[in-house]
Amino acid sequence: MDRRRFLVAGLASMLAARPESGEAQKPGKVPRVGLISNGGRQTHEPLLGAFVAGLREHGWAEGTTIALETRWADGDLRRHPDLTRELVALPVDAIVIAGTAAARAATQATRTIPIVATVLGDPVVSGLVSSLARPGGNLTDWPGRRVTS
After folding, report:
1. What sign does the dihedral 84-88-89-91 (CA atoms) show?
2. What is this structure's pTM?
3. 123 in a domain, yes or no?
4. Number of domains comprising the chain
């Protein structure tokens, strides 16, 4: 399975399974997904287009059945904490990120919002978890194991 299909399928299952905190979901509520890109809009717009196309293949239509909130780091990884805090404050129902720096920022910003990470190095070596045996947490990396505590 290619990475785009995996991410879309993982995101869709996380949104469908996410319990609401103590109250019923409002009728017609559209899930809001935050995406943080390491690059800029011009260089990474094709990746966003591919992601949106993958969502469409799985029955999600941007603006109708799902809302996307994109944030661009413009090559400055130091922006990840601020960008993540913006998404958490909206709030979003899930966050999609790439890389260990973004994963670190996202896991520090929220312990409850599901985070889907791509291009993630070894989570133990990077300090995201102390063990893979009991990861817990809200971060799922490729190939889909939960990796943070």
Report:
1. positive
2. 0.77
3. yes
4. 1
